[in-house]
Amino acid sequence: MTNNKIVKYSKTKRSVYTEIIINASIEKVWSELTNFKEMPTWSRSLQKIEGDFIQNGHTEVHFMDHKGKVGVYKHQLKYFEEGTLFGWSDPFILGITDNHKYQLERISDHQTKSIQSDEVNGFATLFMGNYIMDFFLKSYTEFNETLKNRVEKTN
């Protein structure tokens, strides 16, 4: 059973929520999730993060789209808790604000819930909201599954 979903709050505000249970410690999942050097070998979306990987750090986030083109986005890490959380809330495209988080929750010493969520706001959401959120849902679900496979394979 999955709780992956898109919620439409208004014409200009939507969110996507994805989660997966990984059979590994939270420390192991965090280590793999933040191993940006190896990430391009297993992730087809998030390729790497460069810069100051700390609270309020300025970063460049490299994402690959479904056509194989890598876009680089500058983000400030507004959300950061070592070992459990990182994310940003910055303008994305056409004035849409992207509020993206990667979060880990300890279930037990050998199980971790990995949550990837996003919220978009902005006028262009009226026209592009469905397309963006469908793409995010598919991309985040795939990322979560490949992260799970990667961690459990190396566990």
UniProtKB/TrEMBL annotation:
Q: Which SUPFAM superfamilies match?
A: Bet v1-like
Q: Name one Pfam family in it.
A: Polyketide_cyc2
Q: What is this protein called?
A: Polyketide cyclase / dehydrase and lipid transport
Q: Which organism is it from?
A: Flavobacterium segetis
Classification from the root reads: Bacteria, Pseudomonadati, Bacteroidota, Flavobacteriia, Flavobacteriales
